[in-house]
Write a structure and sequence with these properties.
Elements: H1 2-8, H2 11-20, H3 28-32, H4 45-48, E1 60-76, E2 83-85, E3 94-103, E4 106-113, E5 117-121, E6 134-151, E7 154-173, E8 178-201, E9 204-211, E10 214-226, E11 244-253, E12 256-264, E13 269-278, E14 285-290, E15 305-309, E16 315-325, E17 330-339, E18 357-368, E19 371-382, E20 385-389, E21 394-411
Antiparallel strand pairs: 1-2, 1-3, 1-21, 3-4, 4-6, 5-6, 6-7, 7-8, 8-9, 8-10, 9-12, 10-11, 11-14, 12-13, 13-16, 14-15, 16-17, 17-18, 18-19, 19-21, 20-21
Subcellular location: Cell outer membrane
Organism: Chryseobacterium vrystaatense
GO cellular component, one term: cell outer membrane
């Protein structure tokens, strides 16, 4: 019985993944330049800073795009030297946005993005199977927004954020040869964003934006246990015919601060830089409330309420990108950025493998009158980690590799 309770407590790992995994893939043009934000050329600026809509040259702008994201994580036990690699499917983040200026100093818009989401799949019989075998996460942000031009050189914008999410997690319960699936398809929450966009000189754009934290509320989560013997279910207060229990939880998504600038060195050449600050300290702990199952050995007063310490820390990202107009129709782009992990080696967990990562990016843009086509790619260089999580008994070395590619389309009719 104790073995079940201890392993089930690791559920908190999947919920931190749902809240904390930030995917920087919200614009193909932006990715090619290290995912920098101060680019008010079309509606793709809407997600990064709604105030940027006021400086889009076209009165109506429509954009859409998608990415392929491939990553592999390798864990090696330094005592046995056994090595395990994930077999993750290709991730496919999407985005779309529209911006319209009905009157001279007012712009309205809408942005759809998938800023949190991935799938990690370890072998079903690997040494960490009681922590995770497969974890699938999907999230969707819907953002209506407005921007007002306060002066010819500055605008203010704000957005409302409605978020929907899904999580599906499989793990082993080896003590009784069982399995556990955790699923919630209707988690939701809301937040807001706002920012200022400055163009004090035709050569210089400055973007300052804030995106609020969001508390994703899971109200109808289902935990499904499967054991070869029906006698195990009563130990958890479950009906053997279903093996199911319900849970509720609040899953925090972090806030984000961004300062970006773009400077036109020459009429054909521009340079962009961004600084991002992420409020990961919201992950100090996570609380789950189960309907029946006494999964919380650390809470004798109410063993159906599980509290897990996470010990995340705030992190920073530094980005630098550039674009050069090869011709009036063809644009070349390059970039690089450094992204800090939000936790130390002592808090590493295989459900949310995270690394201090260098990323190099590049791409091409093609402008055909009102239409635009953008291509981008990125190669990530995560730094290896010495895993030392004493709470989980998880020790060894973790490595990763990843690459991204994307196709974006834009239409600016008038």
């Amino acid at each position: 019985m104790k073995k079940i309770l201890v392993s089930t407590a690791l559920l908190a790992g999947v919920l931190s993944y749902a809240g904390g995994f930030r995917v920087s893939l919200q614009g193909v043009k932006q990715l090619a330049m290290a995912h920098t934000s101060a680019h008010a050329e079309d509606a793709s600026v809407a997600f990064f800073n709604p105030a940027g809509m006021s400086f889009i040259p076209s009165k109506l702008s429509i954009v859409a795009g998608g990415f392929g994201a491939s990553n592999k994580v390798t864990f090696q036990n330094l005592n046995t030297l056994q090595s395990t690699e994930t077999d993750n499917p290709l991730g496919t983040p999407l985005y779309a946005a529209v911006a319209y200026r009905p009157i001279e100093n007012l712009s309205v818009g809408f942005s759809f993005t998938t800023p949190f989401g991935s799938t990690i799949q370890w072998p079903s019989d690997w040494e960490g199977k009681e922590m995770v075998q497969k974890l699938e996460l999907k999230s969707f942000y819907f953002q209506p927004m407005v921007s007002v031009k306060l002066a010819p050189w500055v605008s203010f914008g704000a957005s409302y954020i409605y978020a929907k999410g899904k999580v599906d997690w499989d793990k082993a319960v080896t003590h009784f040869g069982g399995e556990l699936n955790i699923k919630d398809e209707k988690a939701s929450g809301s937040g807001y964003g706002f920012g200022f966009y400055f163009r004090p000189d035709p050569k210089l754009d400055i973007s300052i934006a804030y995106r609020s934290p969001i508390d994703m509320k899971a109200k109808k989560g289902t935990a499904t246990f499967k054991f070869p013997s029906a006698s195990v279910y009563p130990l958890l207060g479950l009906d053997p015919s279903t093996g199911q229990d319900k849970f509720t939880a609040t899953l925090p998504l972090v806030e984000e601060y961004t300062i970006g600038l773009t400077y036109k060195v020459t009429p054909k050449w521009l340079v962009s830089a961004d600084f991002n600050y992420h409020g990961w300290e919201r992950y100090s702990k996570l609380t789950l409330d189960f309907a029946t199952a006494p999964v919380a050995t650390n809470n004798p007063a109410d063993p159906t309420v599980l509290v897990s310490q996470k010990n995340f820390r705030n992190s920073k990202t530094f980005r630098l990108g550039t674009q050069y107009a090869i011709t009036d129709m063809i644009f070349g782009r390059l970039g690089a950025y450094y992204d800090e992990s939000p936790y130390t080696d002592e808090n590493f967990i295989p459900e949310t493998p995270s690394f201090n990562t260098y990323v190099v990016t590049g791409g091409l843009g093609f402008k055909l009158k009102q239409f635009g086509i953008d291509l981008a790619g990125g190669y990530a260089i995560p730094q290896a980690r010495d895993v030392k999580n004493a709470n989980l008994g998880f020790n060894g070395q973790a490595k990763a590799k990843a690459f991204y590619f994307g196709l974006g389309l834009s239409y600016n009719p008038f």
